[in-house]
């Protein structure tokens, strides 16, 4: 068994990440964004493609955590108290990050997306600054 505790197999990440990076954050691809954050220990700048969950409250951003709560980028954003989200071609500061269980995240999502969100282990909720 490898030392990785969660997440997709490395081969899948290597195959899909370049495509996700190229499309995320663009105006014409609104369900994908890029979250810019810094490593909580190293201070290294990172840009991670993420899938957004459409919400009923336009001031909240919900990002599903399909690989679980041990996702490094989520811990980095929480440690920093926020990040910058490149979405629809614009940079938006986001603050007050918190990890919530799927049931709570589903109540924040638009009705059509609730069944998808309920199947995830958790989500991170952020507020637009």
Total number of strands: 6
Q: From the coordinates shown, what is the CATH architecture?
A: Roll
Beta-strand content estimate: 35-45%
- CATH topology value: Pnp Oxidase, Chain A
The share of residues in helices is: 25-40%
**Dominant shape:** globular
Number of distinct helices: 4
Report on the biggest sheet. 6 strands, antiparallel, barrel
**Main structural class:** alpha+beta
Mean pLDDT, all residues: 87
Oligomer kind: single chain
The N- to C-terminal Cα distance equals 42 Å
- Output the CATH class name: Mainly Beta
Q: How is the largest sheet built, in terms of strand order? A: 1-2-3-6-5-4
CATH superfamily name? Answer: Electron Transport, Fmn-binding Protein, Chain A
Domains (count): 1
Radius of gyration, in Å, reads: 14 Å
Contiguous runs where pLDDT drops below 50 for at least 5 residues? 1-5
Short description:
The chain has 129 residues and is α+β, with helices and mostly antiparallel strands. The protein contains four helices and six strands; from the N terminus they run αβββαββααβ. Strands 1-2-3-6-5-4 form a six-stranded antiparallel β-barrel.
Describe the structure.
The chain has 129 residues and is an alpha+beta fold. It has one domain (10-128): Pnp Oxidase, Chain A (Roll), CATH 2.30.110. It is 27% helix and 36% strand. It has four helices and six strands, in the order αβββαββααβ. It has helices at 10-23, 72-80, 102-108, 114-118; strands at residues 32-38, 45-53, 60-64, 82-87, 90-101, 122-128. It has a six-stranded antiparallel barrel with strand order 1-2-3-6-5-4. A hairpin with a 6-residue loop joins strand 1 and strand 2 (45-53). It is globular and about 35 Å long. Residues 1-5 have low confidence and may be disordered.
């Amino acid at each position: 068994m490898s030392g990785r505790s969660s997440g997709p197999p490395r081969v899948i990440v290597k195959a899909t990440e370049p495509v996700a990076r190229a499309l995320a954050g663009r105006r014409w691809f609104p369900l994908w964004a890029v979250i810019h954050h810094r490593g909580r220990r190293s201070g290294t700048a990172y840009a991670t493609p993420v899938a957004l969950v459409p919400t009923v409250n336009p001031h909240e951003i919900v990002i599903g955590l399909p690989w679980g709560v041990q996702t490094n980028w989520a811990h980095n954003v929480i440690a920093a108290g926020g990040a910058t989200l490149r979405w629809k071609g614009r940079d938006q500061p986001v603050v007050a990050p918190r990890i919530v269980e799927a049931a709570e995240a589903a109540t924040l999502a638009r009705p059509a997306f609730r069944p998808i969100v309920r199947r995830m282990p958790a989500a991170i909720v952020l507020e637009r600054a």
